[in-house]
Amino acid sequence: MGKGACRFDYSGSRVLVTGGSNGIGAGIASAFLEAGAEVVITGTRAAAEDYDHDLSPYEYHALEIKNAEDIERVAGSLGGLDVLVNNAGASLPGGRNEWEPEVFEESVAINLFGAFRMSVACKSMLAASSLPGGGNIINLASMSSFTAVPIVPGYGAAKAGIVQMTLNLAVAWVAEGVRVNAVAPGLIESNMTAAMKGIEVLEKPQIDRTPMGRWGTPGDVAPAILFLGSGDASFITGQTLNVDGGYSVA
User: Is 155 noted as a catalytic residue in this protein?
Assistant: First the structure.
């Protein structure tokens, strides 16, 4: 969690964080666990024991987010769900060039199609949630939802789609008691951005554009997710909250 004093109580709630084994997802999963939730996470490795860090507090499921059968298997195993965090994603899949059409399509499948399929697969459980404010979905968007990032055109297109998907699901599912929002992180320390750190030509322009002048951390993102999932946000749906150190307004 961040350094603030705000605390949330998710006791008795069941939360799924896709891609919760590393990076931003791990920070989100940890924050929900600290708030008392029963937390389910997914990762690309076969078992939780295959990671260098301890994932034993979580219920772990292997998931390839672009695989429809994997999504149905994970959703079908849950039994019940109160909050879905669609965090799983990747850029430059396999280190390949997203300007190649098949790689572009794969990136969109990983970062957009998978989140839609998981949302649909979990909808009935979320609609049955007794969580104050209702069951809900929080999607992970990005600053690339709003600005050109020519090195990853597929990722950017997918993240722009996440914002539009959030709007449509929010309106379509509100009558069933399901809220849908998104968080758009800025420059955040994670496995995905690790290659940028310390490389001035990549890192400096991003830091210079961020008014707060620093990298964010998963602990900066997680409280926004917990707020949107809570009863305190019960009159909020269809919104994308930027957690970006001011990047989007600079």
Answer: yes
Pairing of strands 59-62, 83-86: unpaired
pTM reported for the whole predicted model: 0.95
Q: What is the CATH number of the domain that holds 88?
A: 3.40.50.720
Domain of 235?
Answer: 14-241
Number of domains in the chain: 1
Is residue 3 in some structural domain?
Answer: no
Please indicate, yes or no, if residue 4 is contained in any of the structural domains: no
Q: What is the pLDDT along the chain (250 residues), one digit of tens a residue?
A: 455 667 899 999 999 999 999 999 999 999 999 999 999 999 999 999 999 999 999 999 999 999 999 999 999 999 999 999 999 999 999 899 999 999 999 999 999 999 999 999 999 999 999 999 999 999 999 999 999 999 999 999 999 999 999 999 999 999 999 999 999 999 998 777 767 777 777 788 888 889 999 999 999 999 999 999 999 999 999 999 999 999 999 8
R_g over Cα of the chain: 17
CB 124 within 8 A of CB 78: no
Instruction: List, as one string, the DSSP characters of 97-129.
Output: -TTSHHHHHHHHIIIIIHHHHHHHHHHHHHHT-
Give the torsion through C-alpha atoms of 45, 46, 51, 57, to 10 deg.
110
CA 223 to CA 234: how far, in whole Å? 16
- Catalytic site residue from 10, 58, 60, 155: 155
CB atoms within 10 A of CB 164: 13
In a domain, 8, yes or no: no
Give the whole-angstrom CA distance, residue 26 versus residue 218.
8
Closest alpha carbon to 106 in 164, 63, 163, 65 = 65
Residue 246 lies in a domain: no
